[in-house]
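Below is one protein, fold included:
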Amino acid sequence: MKEQSDQVKKTVQKQFGTNADKYVTSSTHSKGADLLLLPKWLELPSDATVLDIATGGGHAAKALAPHGAYVFATDLTYDMLNNTRSHLADSGPNIFFVTADAEALPFLDQTFDAAVCRIAAHHFPNPDIFVREAARVLKPGGKFVLIDNVSPADKELDEFVNHLEKTRDNSHVRSYSLNEWETWFKQAGFKKIQENLRKKRFDYKEWVVRTTSSEEQVKEVDQYLLSANDNIKHYFSIKYSENTIDSFEIDEWMVMLEKSE
């Protein structure tokens, strides 16, 4: 099990190290109403210490930096983190960058007032451990916001979207379901405060080239989407013309939790 997890993490490091700039400029990651909602939901005091887990392009850290005293932006991939630091050089002196595994955070218990993890957890091989780690490093009453793609409850739709993501990105592990997340939150002692489940639309051309490494891989993703049955095409709102895919939608969940006192 550990060997399998380690291999997944090496794949993630390779994928994100190679495509670091794409995650900074990606419209999916750099834009979104959730970035505006983050500081509103958390209502951080000016002396707050915040943890951004798996920061990627640093967009959550950048959104929160004006609202807290210190933001620690962490990521498993050093090259990604170093690239993000360069892009955030003008975002304030209160963002600190730390190489860290989301499933083994290098911080003491009860260090942070708040923690966030945005569009990253589908790359984690052990999400239950990640949730326990987030709870461990939070102070009692601390807030945790998770934002990520989630799978539908329907098995066919779940299998389709996860196979699609894996075909495009070999570092994808799984878009987990709401039931899975809520089980792990309960086990870690979190209480749900607020949530928002929405449809997120991808521009297909931008999305597919972000992580694919060849034209053959792009064609494989194309074919998989085009071969979907009517139920799947309707649920994911796949838009195409003359066998060219324009866009599609997936489910994204933003949820805020509070650690038990």
Summary: The CA atoms of residues 76 and 101 lie 5 Å apart. The longest strand covers residues 244-259. The chain has a mean pLDDT of 91.
